[in-house]
Amino acid sequence: MLPGYQAWPEEFAEFYRQEGCWEGITFGEMLRQRADVYGNRTAIISGGEQLTYAELDTRVNRLAAGLYAKGIRKYDRVIVQLPNMPAFVEVIFALFRLGALPVFALPLHRKSEIEYFARFSEAVAYLIPDQDGGFDYRKLAAEVQAEVPSLRHIIVAGEAGAFTKLEDLYIDPVQLKDDQPVSSDVAFLQLSGGSTGLSKMIPRTHDDYIYSLRRSVEVCGLSPESVYLAVLPAAHNYPLSSPGILGTLYAGGTVVLSRGSSPDEAFPLMKEHQVTITALVPPLALIWLNAAAARGTKLTSLKVLQVGGAKFSAEVAGRVRPVLGCTLQQVFGMAEGLVNYTRLDDPEHIIINTQGKPMSPYDEVKIVDDEDIEVELGQSGHLLTRGPYTIRGYYKAEEHNARSFTTDGFYRTGDIASLTPEGYLIVEGRAKDQINRGGDKVAAEEVENHLLAHPGVHDAALVSMPDEYLGERSCAFIVPSGETLAAAEIKSYLRSRGLASYKIPDRVEFVQSFPKTGVGKVSKKALREMLTMKQPI
Ligand code: J2J
Description:
Blueprint: H1 10-18, H2 27-38, E1 42-46, E2 49-52, H3 53-69, E3 77-80, H4 86-98, E4 101-104, H5 111-121, E5 125-129, E6 131-132, E7 135-136, H6 137-147, E8 153-157, E9 164-165, E10 186-191, E11 201-205, H7 206-220, E12 227-230, H8 237-241, H9 244-251, E13 254-257, H10 263-273, E14 277-280, H11 282-295, E15 304-308, H12 314-317, H13 320-324, E16 327-334, E17 337-341, H14 348-353, E18 357-358, E19 364-368, E20 381-386, H15 398-404, E21 411-419, E22 425-430, E23 434-437, E24 440-443, H16 444-452, E25 457-467, E26 471-480, H17 487-496, E27 507-510, H18 524-532
Parallel strand pairs: 1-13, 3-4, 3-5, 5-8, 8-9, 12-13, 12-14, 14-15, 15-16, 26-27
Antiparallel strand pairs: 1-2, 6-7, 10-11, 16-17, 17-18, 19-20, 20-21, 21-22, 23-24, 25-26
The site of ligand J2J has 23 residues, from helix 8, strand 16, strand 21 and strand 22.
């Protein structure tokens, strides 16, 4: 077993197997089975490229052989930072076949994040595009490799320069001699949104993740006729698995990969490929609704529009059916496991006003107070969960796990929620110290640590501020150690430290001291209140 992985207790594992949740197949086997059944059907469409299931399976086998020839073996960690392109799908399935573990980085991650992922996971390889969105990933990779000696291979989709060219790794398949992965093995490491200094890694097994795909496919009504448009970054758990790219492949459907998410890019793709389902975060849904309303566009093929990752306001939710003519599905999920969906045939008031109910009958959810005592139905409290696809611990994080999980294995989601009598969840707020910037999660402590490294900063606190468009934005409060600093200087300092752009504070405020709570801690509540006061601070 992978060291640092916390498995389910045997009696739970036995139960989930017995109940048929865990099918006992790996991702490698899943793709082979789909290629057997759906061989000539289209699996992936991207730009001018199309791949059938049979072609995808063959390319994955060839790539697995090439990666093997490079020395990549079972349990090796490989950072995958690829945009929405066919190589993303081929690379992860090739790694799954070898039993090597993709570590899913987002395209916006920069040196600070990637260096940490590489160091913490002791990654042996790093997969990147040559450039994307005007950013040269090869430069970033060279910087990271100089700092992290374990990183033996930089593999580039595109112009590789001095690095290994991904296309050269598609070679004749060989019979792999090593240990083959089994379904109970960890398949990959997903990243947590995080509330601590550095984001935690989430070990997901073939068994548990494939179960989450199966349930997602059932709940979302996917079939071989479904066409899923991926506009959110493929590596994120939501477009990857709810039901996302992998769920669509599980169902034998077609995945259309889009680099951009704007209506100008997405609407023509929807029309051309007769897309039936896609997934958005709330700010994007608002942009799409406004564009469709202004242009009088009807997305006629679209049956389901999923919105999740952050709270979708009921007011905007109510516009989806009238404007787009499709069913809204609210999705409240987390990379740690639990995914809630409104059902396609739910009454409109449930679809608009709730964040759905757990997708599996084996999901256990509890709403508790600060003492872990269950509250009365309808009251809000901390959401705890346990189930066949919710992890029992983060990767190599024993100390943190003791705080993030109860002794009987419930994951503390950090979300404040309430349950309706019908068993639907309403997200009311958050107990974790995180800013949800329109679906992009920012751990306050991580940004604060970077701010504290600045010699002119005596103390720092990052808080959320309400925002009409993103839901929330971030504001950094700073107590300077000497002379007053400029907000622009603080922001450029954070950028120079290689922080992803969405973590750069939207606003910076300088104060003499922080308001404190009764026990002398910085009161973020008071700081947030200062932001909503009429007068400038
Ligand atoms: C309010 N908050 C939400 C929602 C997530 C499907 C969908 C989303 C994610 C995801 C995912 C929310 N309303 N509808 O992994 O498979 C906030 C909560 C939650 C955190 C998880 C999936 N949907 N959230 O967003 O790991 O605070 O996963 O705990 O990025 O996002 O973030 P993440």
